[in-house]
Structures
1.
Amino acid sequence: MKASWDIFCSVVDNYGDIGVTWRLARQLVAEHRCAVRLWVDDLRAFERLCPPIDVALPQQWQEGVDVRHWPAEWSPVAAADVVIAAFACQLPPAYMEAMAERERAPLWLNLDYLSAEAWVTGCHGLPSVKFKGVQKYFFFPGFQAGTGGLLREAGLLERRRAFQQDPLARKGFLAGLGVFAAPDARLMSLFAYENAGLASWLEALAADSRATHLLVPEGRILGDVQNWLGVEVLAAGAVQVRGALTVQVLPFVRQEEYDQFLWSCDFNAVRGEDSFVRAQWAGRPMLWHIYQQDEDIHLDKLDAFLELYTQGLSPEAKAALIDLWRAWNAGGEMAQGWKKLLEHWPEVAAHAEKWCLEQGSQPDLAAALVQFYLNWI
């Protein structure tokens, strides 16, 4: 298929929005031969994920994607065959006029936030508003049949499996990041928003009978880590030891490296949407810090996912996992929840791999978008 696509991304959550749209744009180009323009209003946030980006350029090519700076003052351009407003961002009024002026109206999609809530399957693919005859449709990523699926590149799970079965590949990758953990240490990653519950978790890890090597990429949680350690400055390259816990701060890595980073760890604490999905593809036990929303409506999304994710676990393992996730997302006490999860570690670890393979058997988001367009035309 050769169709033109415009993807609009307004960066509102540091890296989640651009993380999703950048992955999608590259996959549409690489696997579906689409011509993709990615419009981004914050190239500096984009630069963290794609270091070759020149933030001063209004237009540039990256990995086959036509990357455009989305300026405050819009210059007229022809509308594409498919137009994606990522996460309900508002398109430029002049661009909407260009859509209406096309001889054949484009397919206009609102690519919404990921959710496991039951109502999503009923709304996915339904028409939304119209603009001068141009119809917009809802498109929901999701975990169940009847949704748009999850972003997953071709061969991803096979590459992950080969990496995890190759100790030398893992060791070499970690060495490239400057990570040299003790052979018997539990390797964990921490990428989260600010969280009052972190101190109790770190205390539990420090007092554990087994060593833990905690890898913390630069990000918003770093201030809480710094406060617990009682140090004035904590930057990339820092290594601090407290009891059985070694804390190591890593520089922000590009997306491809972040996948291998998650694959390398025994447990991954992640946040937002993009890293949340990538942690699931790692097939390892995980903890999600969901983005907080007004009136705590994010907790409904959290519970909906937990209801799906914990199916098949024993009642005891299910309760341990749910209690830990809820405590983390409430900024609560983490020590007892972590201890309970460790009691069920073999079952939780096997379940994470099983969930990964189940999700991997479904169509991926990029393929679902392309099929939706083919059905539409």
2.
Amino acid sequence: MEALYHQTNRLVQGTQQCFEKLEKADDINSDAIEREIQARINSITSNCERLEILLYKEPLNRRTNGKLRIDQLKYDRVHLQAALDTFRNRKYQRLQEEREREALLNLQFQPNNCKETSILMDHSQKHHSSLQNANRGVDDLLLSGAGILENLRDQRMTMKGAHRRLYDIANTLGLSNTTMRLIERRAYQDQFILFGGMVFTLIVIGLIVVYCT
């Protein structure tokens, strides 16, 4: 176990030195160094797994110290892998920016094509006109509905006045209680008809407003 631990520790140190070479290398040579670093990291991972198996064969008084050393190697491996991934991401972004810059420099501009640059103003104008007409129609419906409600309110007041006058006339003429109850029942039913018409009108106006907008 000790020999494998020292071998893995040397791998960690050698991988760290490879990163110094990687920072100084150009794009052509960096690929080979990246592959070498990845191979070293894979070896470190494999050795850590073997060390964890061998740890259980050690005496109990040495397992705690051995576990700490293996955890340190695993931490170093994670750190090395993260550093390699970060370098690859930076390299990819740099290459992508260079390709985009090269493509922009090589781009040849041509005179504008009237068919390609023309804007479909007619369609936009028609759409705008349709919206204006719809809004105008909704406003007209709202005004019409308000007029209908006002008429219904006036009719209700008229019916109340007529009922009151009929009641007074009936008292004056001395009509029977049965006749009075019939008149009151008819007036009560007329109120339901009135309120029902008002509610129906409001529902129709609300549906028109919802579907038109």
3.
Amino acid sequence: MARPSAARRGDLFAAECPSRQVLQHVTSRWGVLVLVALRSGERRRFSELRREIGGVSEKMLAQTLQGLEGDGFVERTAHPVVPPHVDYRLTRLGLQVAGHVHELADWIEASMPAIEHARAQRGAATSTG
């Protein structure tokens, strides 16, 4: 019996590699925020996510959720009730990627004083040069 071929690792540097689209979904502004917001593993309604993620439009949140769902990171559950009730949660794969994204987001938040200082230094250097 033939063995199934092993899945190949992605190559982000290859122009046509589908891993680039996954990277875009995960690292987009809204993708990062959705993954971090869902990191608890609890089911969340669309309206809850929209309230928590300041500045995201309904359209962008819907597109972000669809992209993450397509990549297997988010599970969407539609409940057969009136009015419609849809909720979202991370899959096992989604919890893994959310952990990595959360580390980056946490580092950025913790490093903001140093980043702001570097920005101010850079601004002072460019205004005198």
